[in-house]
Amino acid sequence: MVGRNEPRLAKERLTQGLALFSLLAMGAWVLVGPSGLLAWSENNRLLAERQKELAQLKVEREDLKNRVALLDPRQVDPDMAGQLLRANLNVVHPDEVVLIIK
């Protein structure tokens, strides 16, 4: 009878070993995986960076919205039109003085 139980006992040990290995692998994945506990602080740092970048982009977007509103074809802001003409076409009024700062 002892001989008959040995293959069964070896099969149970193999099954238990595989189950233990699977549990240890899942535990390691929880600790060091891409969304694991060790990556949590890195994810928080990246989130803070992205939020800062998003705030900066929102400010730039509001500035661009303002410029677009000033260039509305139905009512163009004269100062903005003059600024764009000077910058893009390199033109000035006859009574203006241009100072080149290096």
How would you describe this protein?
This protein has three helices and no strands. The radius of gyration is 35 Å and the shape is rod-shaped. It has two domains: 38 residues; 41 residues. The N and C termini lie far apart (99 Å). It is an all-alpha fold. It is 73% helix and 0% strand.
Mean pLDDT: 86
**How many strands appear in the DSSP assignment?**
0
Uncertain residue ranges: none
Order of helical and strand elements: HHH
How many distinct helices?
3
Radius of gyration over all CA atoms, rounded:
35 Å
Question: Outline, from the CA principal axes?
Answer: rod-shaped
Largest sheet geometry? none
Tally of structural domains: 2
Proportion of helical residues: over 70%
Between the first and last Cα atoms, what is the distance in angstroms?
99 Å
Secondary-structure class:
mainly alpha
Work out the strand percent: under 5%
In short:
The protein has about 100 residues and is an all-alpha fold. The chain has helices spanning about 1-30, 40-70, 80-90.
What distinguishing features does this structure have?
single chain, 102 residues, mainly alpha, 0% strand
Strand and helix layout:
Elements (H helix, E strand, L loop, with lengths): L1 H31 L7 H31 L7 H12 L13
